[in-house]
């Protein structure tokens, strides 16, 4: 009886287990084998398609790609890299082959571990080519990190750069040779020219009739003009060759500028031009720098202004810029000449360029180029502004510090004095009026003796300044 109950219990347990299994099978239906095979094939196709897209992308963006494991064995190679060795990508897997490197160029190691290097390789075709490779670490194995190397053929760029460097070197060598030649020739020309000019001066001190004196003065003037051209060429060659040394000595800049204006005044008067000078009151006269080169800059700028101006005048202004250690000079030259077309201003300071294309002006076109080089050599700046038909303004800023112990002159105040300025030309009078106004005086400008008499009849002036060009009779009336 007991055995029968036990058997019956086992049968019931087996039946319950079978029921549970059937229930589970109903909840998770079995996938047919054919469906599983199809899903696996779809997945493999997707992987193959992704790999093909990756390979196409690699081949399109880089010419040579190779990945190596920690032992240097190739785990991936693009068709471009394999072509360098005359093989197929699959033939390289597991090998340590590399193209022959015959030259290495520039390289760069970045902080993130990426390295950029240029190498000249010899492919299987035997024609050396330059490649620029980017190397970077990728996920590794027990043997160490894998390295991915991707390169582009940069042969054309490298060769073009080398050709450019060679051309630049040849041009620099030719330029140095040219500068030496110009310096030598200029020096050799100066010696006989100085002899000619010296003899002309001696000849003018002898008894000459008017016709002979005219001839001697003509060849002396021509000789001085030629000497000026030679000096310009010599200066330019020295600057180009880097052999121009600048002095750093104290000099009186106000006296220097006044001397240049006095030197150029006869030239301006010969053309019927006025030349005016305005020096700021707060300017420390003693400056540290190269006085000869500052004089040359001013002579070039003011001389050009006189040369190109036919009516009106030329004005020279000297002021200071900045404060303390940054204090310097501002030198301005303005004229009432024909002006310079706007499109020519950017090339105005280039060699052999002038304000216009006319052949009517003498000179080599080196004056402004030399001026720019001198200003830059002094760490200064130069700029030009011009209006066609109204004139031009050149502004030079030079960082020439005041000499130790130099003090700005104390200008006495003229307030509240009234000054009448009588000048037939409208150019010098405004310069003088500004100068008097800074000193506190009230300046009134008129352009004729009659206007001056009218002004004097209505106002009591403390001083009167009259231009001698009005004539002695008109000045006496005042």
CATH class of the largest domain: Alpha Beta
In percent terms, what proportion of residues is strand?
A: 15-25%
Helix content: 40-55%
Largest sheet: 6 strands, antiparallel
Structural class: alpha+beta
The whole-number mean of residue pLDDT values reads 80
Strands side by side in the biggest sheet: 2-1-6-5-4-3
Number of helices: 12
What name goes with the CATH superfamily of the largest domain? Histidine kinase-like ATPase, C-terminal domain
Low-confidence stretches at least 5 residues in length (pLDDT < 50)?
1-28
Instruction: Please tell me what the overall shape is.
Output: elongated
| Amino- and carboxy-terminal Cα gap | 164 Å
How many independent structural domains?
Answer: 4
- Radius of gyration (CA) equals 45 Å
Q: Tell me the number of strands.
A: 16
Q: Provide the CATH architecture of the largest domain.
A: 2-Layer Sandwich
Question: Might you state the CATH topology name of the largest domain?
Answer: Heat Shock Protein 90
From N to C, what is the helix and strand string?
HHEEHHEEEEHHEHEEHEEHEEEHEHEH
For the structure shown, list the relevant keywords.
disordered N terminus; Heat Shock Protein 90; Beta-Lactamase; 12 helices; six-stranded antiparallel beta sheet; 4 domains; elongated; 478 residues
């Amino acid at each position: 009886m007991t055995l029968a109950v036990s058997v019956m219990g086992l049968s019931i347990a087996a039946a319950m287990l079978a029921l549970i299994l059937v229930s589970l099978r109903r909840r998770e239906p079995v996938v047919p084998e054919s469906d599983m095979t199809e899903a696996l094939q779809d997945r493999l196709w997707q992987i193959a398609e992704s790999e093909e897209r990756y390979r196409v992308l690699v081949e399109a963006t880089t010419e040579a790609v190779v990945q190596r494991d920690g032992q240097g064995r190739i785990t991936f190679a693009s068709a471009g890299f394999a072509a360098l060795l005359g093989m197929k990508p699959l033939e390289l897997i597991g090998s340590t082959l590399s193209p022959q490197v015959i030259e290495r160029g520039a390289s760069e190691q970045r902080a993130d571990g990426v390295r950029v290097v240029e190498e000249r390789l010899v492919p299987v075709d035997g024609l050396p080519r330059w490649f620029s490779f980017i190397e970077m670490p990728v996920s590794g194995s027990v043997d160490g990190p894998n390295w991915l190397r991707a390169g582009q053929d940069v042969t054309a760029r490298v060769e073009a750069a080398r050709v450019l460097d060679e051309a630049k070197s040849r041009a620099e060598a030719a330029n140095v040779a040219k500068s030496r030649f110009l310096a030598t020739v200029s020096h050799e020309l100066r010696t006989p020219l100085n002899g000619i000019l010296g003899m002309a001066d001696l000849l003018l001190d002898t008894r000459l009739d008017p016709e002979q004196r005219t001839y001697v003065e003509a060849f002396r003037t021509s000789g001085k003009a030629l000497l000026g051209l030679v000096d310009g060429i010599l200066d330019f060659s020295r600057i180009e060759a880097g052999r121009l040394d600048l002095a750093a000595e104290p000099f009186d800049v106000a006296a220097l500028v006044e001397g240049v204006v006095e030197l150029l005044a006869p030239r301006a008067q010969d053309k019927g031009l006025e030349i005016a000078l305005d020096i700021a009151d707060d300017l420390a006269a003693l400056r540290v720098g190269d006085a000869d080169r500052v004089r040359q800059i001013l002579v070039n700028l003011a001389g050009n202004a006189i040369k190109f101006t036919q009516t009106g005048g030329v004005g020279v202004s000297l002021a200071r810029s900045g404060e303390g250690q940054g204090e310097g000079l501002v030198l301005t030259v303005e004229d009432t000449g024909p002006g310079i077309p706007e499109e020519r201003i950017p090339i105005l300071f280039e060699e052999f360029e002038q304000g216009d294309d006319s052949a009517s002006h003498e000179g080599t076109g080196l004056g402004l180029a030399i001026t720019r080089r001198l200003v830059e050599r002094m760490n200064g700046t130069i700029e030009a502004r011009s209006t066609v038909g109204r004139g031009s303004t050149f502004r030079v800023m030079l960082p020439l510090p005041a000499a130790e112990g130099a003090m700005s002159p104390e200008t006495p105040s003229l307030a509240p004095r009234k000054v009448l300025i009588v000048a037939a030309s409208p150019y010098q009078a405004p310069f003088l009026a500004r100068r008097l106004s800074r000193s506190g005086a009230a300046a009134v400008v008129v352009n004729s003796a009659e206007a001056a008499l009218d002004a004097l009849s209505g106002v009591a002036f403390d001083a009167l300044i009259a231009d001698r060009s009005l004539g002695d009779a008109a000045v006496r009336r005042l």
